[in-house]
Write a structure and sequence with these properties.
Number of strands: 22
Structural class: alpha/beta
Strand order of the largest sheet: 3-2-1-4-5-6
CATH architecture of the domain at 384-516: 3-Layer(aba) Sandwich
Shape: elongated
Strand content: 15-25%
Length: 621
């Protein structure tokens, strides 16, 4: 190997200095400027020693050369010999190049600095803030709900870290959410999988961390990588809530995140809600009301005055809040047996419009014994359900449905999906039939005999992009709605959609329930970011075991057409071993946003329940 020459070494050294950034380039420019000034001053002293008039030595000449280099316009006012004018002209031309390069370097350096500030690369100096890592459509739901939750708090902060432009993120969120109230939004551009970028979020002082599952291929791998990056950081970080799209990745994510991470299985949660909504009309609206921060919210309380009372007695303990269960050291149980005694280490699970409304009632409730109806819950009978379309969570939906229905029930699957009806071995209560069908075709739907079914589930076809899939779902819903009107048929319809913006269009079809899976998961993540202990409560609600939410005929609880207080409805349900949490007005079942559902009414509120209205209860099947 030949030895490097002096020229090669010099060039290598020069290249290294040039690569150090704007400061190094300005340094070289300064050296060139000094050289230019010295050369011009030297030539002036040599060729025109007595010019210009009044020169006082070499220092004065250097100053004149400097002024010509920085301001070439001074040449216009110069007078002297040809030699002097030629030297000053050359100095001015050289200065013109130097100044141009200096302006360009400074402009470029400032642009890079502004771009860096624009991207948000400074470390957050907040405390008690909520951190959102990653970007998906769920971020809009989460931010909107956290803004509502923090509406009465001063100085609340939501910090978002994602691989998007800082200003673009802020503009998108403000456009989607609107007024942020007292909550400040702070966005940072970076990769949530990089520990260096995570350091920008000041995680040690954060209140909670939400990890979003991004859009695109294999999103769960991205979530698991973020959890690994969080686990790698030294020191203590706040509780983490992460959303996953597939149940198959739960074990790997739990291993990556450790004990401080609560995982939300998007497929599992959406599947359970779709199944429950298909069997109980209005279930999705009830769950959405419980998950958002608008009206009825779920709280955990430890009131000393309830210790020693039974659960049945505690149902009347609050005037403007509804007791729905207990959080015990052994776990959450909703609608426990009415004779369950509340212990000192129990927490009471309540629904309230705000935590300030959770106050014990003064005195005994006003009950109308003459209005209470003694009736038994109807026995479960075999059901017929029609499932239209197929996607990746359809198998899970069918298996959950099998756990709810009575033996001898029938499920008809109609889809042109190549995987429709696969992987359904081992069902206990359902008999499954599969038919090839284009669910957007009116004649194909009529050939199914839809009127023979009690429930219809319309899934989103995963072979199409989300927007196109929602369009096909809308077409199917419109066909079903027209068939109901034309043929006089009645069956409950629950549909699955991707985009919340399509809900308003779907409401025209008057479907009983519309499940927007991304919105549901976003609401759940926001709830758990505020109070991760609610995970057990929502897990219980979405499980087929234990008590569930049912809308049941009001005539089974109180005399219809009679003016009663809601406390009377609560008492009637209590005597049946059920917990009443609200009611549904049948006349408003198609009126958004609550579709006739009223949760947690004041127990002294007089109401009149008519034929067709429902009482919403927590009950065993």
């Amino acid at each position: 190997m030949s030895k490097a020459t002096f020229r090669e070494r010099a060039r290598y050294w020069f290249d290294n200095t040039m690569s150090r950034g704007t400061a190094s380039l300005i340094g070289w420019l300064a050296v060139v400027s000094v050289g230019l000034i010295v050369v011009v001053a030297g030539l002036t002293l040599w060729l025109a020693p007595n010019e210009p008039d009044g020169v006082n030595g070499p220092g004065h000449v250097l100053w004149i050369a400097l002024m010509h280099a920085l301001n070439p316009g001074k040449l216009a006012s110069d007078k002297g010999s040809t030699a002097y004018m030629a030297v000053m002209f050359a100095g001015s031309i050289g200065g013109l190049f130097v100044v141009s390069m200096l302006v360009g370097l400074l402009s470029n350096g400032l642009k890079q600095k502004v771009d860096r500030l624009r991207r948000g690369r400074s470390r957050i100096v907040e405390s008690g803030h909520t951190v959102v890592l990653g970007w998906s459509d769920q971020v809009f739901t989460i931010v909107a709900e956290l803004v509502k939750a923090h509406a009465s708090q001063k100085g609340s902060v939501i910090a978002v870290l994602a691989e998007r432009d800082k200003l673009a993120m802020e503009d998108d969120i403000r456009e989607a959410v609107g007024d942020l109230g007292r909550t400040r939004l702070v966005c940072r551009t970076g990769r949530p999988t990089e520990p260096r970028d995570l350091a920008l979020m000041n995680l040690a002082t954060a209140r909670s961390i939400v990890v979003l599952s991004p859009e695109g291929e294999d999103p769960d791998a991205h979530v698991i990588k973020i959890l690994l990056a969080l686990a790698k950081r030294r020191g203590v970080h706040p509780p983490v809530v992460a959303g996953l799209t597939s149940s198959r990745n739960i074990a790997a994510a739990r291993l990556a995140g450790g004990e401080d991470v609560h995982l939300v299985d998007s497929d599992d949660t959406a599947s359970r809600l779709i199944v429950q909504s298909s069997r109980q009309s209005g279930m999705s609206v009830v769950c959405m009301d419980l998950l958002n921060f608008d009206d009825g919210e779920i709280y955990l309380r430890t009131p000393k005055k309830l210790v020693g009372m039974t659960y049945g007695e505690a149902l009347h303990a609050y005037q403007t809040a509804s007791v729905i269960g207990l959080r015990r050291p052994t776990g959450v149980v909703l609608n426990p047996p009415m004779d369950t005694v509340i212990n000192a280490d129990d927490q009471v699970v309540v629904i309230a419009h705000d935590d300030s409304h959770i106050r014990l009632a003064a005195g005994k409730p006003s009950l109308d014994e003459s209005a209470i109806v003694e009736a038994q819950a109807p026995p479960t009978e075999p059901e017929r359900t029609l499932l239209l379309n197929w996607n990746g969570r359809a198998e899970q939906i069918v298996r959950y449905l099998d756990g709810y229905v009575a033996p001898g029930s029938v499920l008809e699957i109609a889809a042109d999906h190549p995987k429709a009806g696969t992987g359904l071995a081992g069902l206990r209560n359902l008999t499954v039939n599969v038919k090839d069908c284009d669910t957007t075709d009116r004649y194909a739907l009529e050939s199914l005999g839809v009127g023979l079914f009690q429930h219809v589930i319309v899934l989103s076809d995963d072979r199409f992009a989300p927007h196109h899939a929602d369009t096909r779902t809308l077409m199917t819903l419109l066909q079903l709605r027209d068939m109901q009107s034309t043929l006089g048929e009645h069956y409950s319809i629950v549909s699955e959609m991707h985009d919340e913006n399509n809900r308003a269009l779907a409401e025209v079809t008057e479907a009983d329930d519309i499940v927007i899976s991304d919105t549901v998961i976003g609401l759940l993540l926001a709830q758990l970011a505020e109070n991760r202990h609610l995970a057990d409560v929502f897990g219980y609600l979405f499980d087929s075991r234990g008590s569930e939410i049912y809308p049941r005929p009001a005539a089974s609880y109180v005399k219809t057409g009679t003016r009663v207080h809601f406390a009377t409805v609560v008492e009637s349900a209590r005597r049946r071993g059920e917990t009443a949490i609200g009611y549904r007005n049948a006349l408003a079942r198609n009126d958004p946003p609550h579709y006739g559902i009223v949760l947690n009414p004041d127990k002294s509120e007089p109401i009149v329940l008519n034929k067709g209205d429902s009482v919403i209860v927590l009950a065993e099947r």
